[in-house]
Input
Amino acid sequence: MEGCVDELCEKGGFDRWQLRYDNAVRDGQMISTGQVIKGGAGVPAALQALKGEYYKAVGAGKAVGLAVGIKNTGIGNAMADIGRAKIVIKSTDCVEVHHGWTEMGQGVHTMAVHAFCEETGLDPSIVKVIVDTAEDVVCGMTTSSRGTSLVGHAVIDACRELNKDLEKKQLKALAGREYRGEWRCDWTTALGAENLPGNEKLEVATHYSYGYAAQLVVLGKDGKIECIYAAHDAGRIMNPTLFEGQIEGAVHMGLGYALTEEFKEEGCRPVTTKLGRMGIIRAKNMPDVVVRGVEVRDPNGPFGVKGVGEIGLVPTAPAVAGALWCFDKKRRYELPMREPERL
Output
């Protein structure tokens, strides 16, 4: 899609940044699923965050590639998304926050602590996050963007009754009490449901939230990647360090997807089972990555939060392809683009 936009700009003599900015989805406009975005459309802000670098590189005669992306949060499509949490007051020095998500490096425990402290004002040093089947806080499958939103909502809900009690009593007096919270999104619609008989007035909402991003790839005079600028709209950045690390890692993964990684098979079997032979880019070969945080708050996210899971690498490959076309005027139509030696 981004390649088509670039071709349109080439044939029509349009500016690649300006055409994308002028036509970026905004609040009140419809996306491809038929859903009208009621708030939080972050593509324009993400593009604005890259405008200066884009025109500076173009003005210097460098080859650049620009791409934007959108990624839903939650399962959606008429399937329920449910988050649950339980807060247990153990003592003045220990508060347990239970939830049902697997912490696999995506920071869901950190989000739980942030949400709890944001709501109660209590010190994070006394908070212990626990995931235990016996605690009966079932949340469904673990995915990072979805977990971030749902654990935040659930903890906020659990904190409502706790805050009422804290208005009357000290934390010490609440030892032994439990507070449960839940957030449920069961109002999304299936794709094409509006076309079924009787659904003519159905309001399409395939997902409750979306994340947005824009990335800029700048090549040096030798055609090698000089820098990647990644502007990502997280709604609200709860933990800047985790946010930056997530986007840097995603750009690394996106570059491998674009240029070097390939899962080869022969007779439906992997050619190799060695991860080191998959073409993953070595750390020493990574170009500079500059992460720009954008905060266009989402109406359905806790504190306005949006997920930054999969969206992190959505724009990377098309931005690389656009930069390569700008360098040598050749269109690439396959991934990987097989240019690891030069790039």
About this structure: The radius of gyration is 23 Å. The chain has seven helices and ten strands. The longest strand covers residues 81-91.
